[in-house]
């Protein structure tokens, strides 16, 4: 079916191309005809102007020559002076451009005006009868001689006018024959172009008729091919729809089975997770109890160490006050031996305090490092290596400022037990809530111990 449609479509394309070419050819012929007509009109006009202009100029020169001869005769009134006008018209004829018919027309009008003036200014001599003459014989003879001269001039003028008329008539005949010949040629050319136009129009009508017939045939065959293709396409679409629906039903069944399997696997996973959660809750409860026991022991150790540390701090404060009192007394007495002895005692007490701090640090390291424990360790290590320097500068320091329990850092230090490693995640928050005491609360706690456990 498709193989049959291809030649028909190619033939339709060829017919369309041939029709388009024929239409273009007809349009070109029409354009050429219009162009020839315009050229014919323009060329005819230009040719007529080119042939007519020299004849008109020649005729006007002859007319101006005749007017000049008339002005020289005695027939024209002497009061009429047209010599300047004749010179001006001749100058205008010499300056006329090629194809300037308007200027020639103006010169012809001026020449006509000169003829009108001459016709009005001609004077005819009056004839006198011999019997009416009252003058003498001498006057009669002179008048007779004047009349003879005037008659001679009139005959010359008549002959010149006849020659001018004959020349003008010959010029007119020549121009008329020339234009009749041109008009005949133009008519023959127009008839030839008209016959060519009719022939082209008939050819166009024939080509249009043939193209219409071929287009009708091709259109009918093309519609038949389209109808067959449409039926085949509809059958293919129906078959594809049936196959698609079948595949869709199979895919739905497979998806249903897969969803059922996934649901069962998910239920089994939920059961396993529930059992794991129950076992982990049991393990968590046992770990919580063990950790609570261990936490209670660490709290007891922390309380013991805190009480010992507070006692040492109170003792150090008492020694500081005694040292300050003795130093003031020795300063008054000028004795320095007791000051040195007290300084040595103070150094020994500082060593004991450092030892306690190291023990506390050791307990902290058992449970894990923490920032506060590391800071106390650094504080103890920074105080331990320089006991002599502290004892040497102590007197000067007490002379500058007397320390008390409010300004001494030993009254505000508190060992913090860090988080233990290996503690389960679900117990970290409980440990933090039990041990994370603010610094201000720890400070108040030790200040209360320092103030009320042992009075200064």
From TrEMBL:
InterPro entries: Actin_Cytoskeleton_Reg (IPR052223)
Keyword annotations of the record: Coiled coil
Keyword DNA repair: no
Entry coiled-coil feature ranges: 12-46, 176-257
UniProt superkingdom: Eukaryota
GO function term, MF aspect, one: actin filament binding
GO cellular component, as recorded: actin cytoskeleton
Segments for region (Disordered): 364-392
Name of the featured protein: Uncharacterized protein
């Amino acid at each position: 079916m498709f193989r049959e449609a291809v030649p028909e479509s190619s033939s339709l394309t060829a017919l369309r191309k041939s029709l388009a070419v024929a239409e273009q050819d007809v349009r070109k012929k029409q354009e050429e005809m219009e162009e020839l007509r315009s050229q014919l009109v323009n060329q005819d006009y230009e040719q007529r102007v080119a042939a007519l202009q020299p004849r008109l100029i020649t005729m006007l020169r002859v007319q101006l020559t005749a007017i000049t001869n008339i002005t020289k005769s005695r027939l024209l009134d002497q009061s009429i002076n047209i010599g300047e006008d004749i010179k001006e018209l001749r100058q205008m004829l010499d300056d006329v451009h090629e194809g300037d018919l308007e200027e020639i027309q103006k010169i012809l009008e001026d020449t006509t005006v000169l003829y009108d003036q001459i016709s009005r200014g001609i004077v005819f001599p009056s004839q006198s009868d011999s019997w009416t003459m009252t003058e003498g014989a001498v006057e009669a003879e002179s008048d007779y001689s004047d009349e003879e001269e005037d008659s001679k001039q009139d005959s010359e003028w008549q002959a010149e006018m006849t020659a001018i008329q004959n020349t003008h008539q010959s010029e007119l005949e020549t121009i008329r024959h020339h234009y009749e010949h041109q008009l005949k040629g133009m008519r023959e050319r127009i008839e030839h172009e008209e016959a060519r136009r009719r022939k082209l129009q008939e050819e166009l009508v024939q080509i249009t008729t043939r193209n219409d017939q071929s287009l009708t045939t091709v259109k009918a065959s093309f519609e038949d091919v389209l109808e067959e293709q449409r039926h085949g396409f509809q059958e293919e679409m129906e078959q594809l729809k049936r196959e698609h629906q079948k595949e869709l039903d199979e895919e739905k069944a497979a998806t249903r089975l897969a969803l059922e399997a996934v649901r069962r696997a998910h239920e089994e996973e939920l059961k396993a997770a529930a059992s794991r959660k129950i076992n982990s809750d049991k393990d968590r409860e046992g770990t919580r109890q063990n950790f609570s026991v261990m936490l209670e022991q660490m709290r007891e150790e922390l309380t013991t160490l805190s009480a010992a540390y507070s006692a040492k701090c109170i003792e150090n404060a008492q020694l500081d006050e005694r040292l300050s009192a003795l130093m003031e007394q020795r300063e008054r007495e000028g004795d320095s031996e007791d000051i040195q002895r007290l300084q040595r005692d103070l150094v020994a007490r500082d060593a004991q305090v450092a030892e306690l701090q190291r023990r506390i640090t050791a307990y902290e390291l058992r449970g894990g490092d923490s920032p506060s424990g590391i800071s106390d360790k650094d504080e103890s290590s920074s105080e331990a290596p320089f006991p002599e320097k502290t004892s040497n500068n102590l007197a000067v320091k007490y002379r500058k400022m007397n320390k008390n329990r409010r300004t001494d850092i030993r009254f505000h230090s508190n060992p913090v037990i860090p988080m233990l490693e290996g503690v389960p995640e679900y117990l970290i928050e409980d440990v933090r809530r039990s041990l994370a005491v603010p610094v201000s609360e720890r400070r108040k706690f030790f200040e209360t111990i320092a103030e009320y456990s042992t009075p200064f």
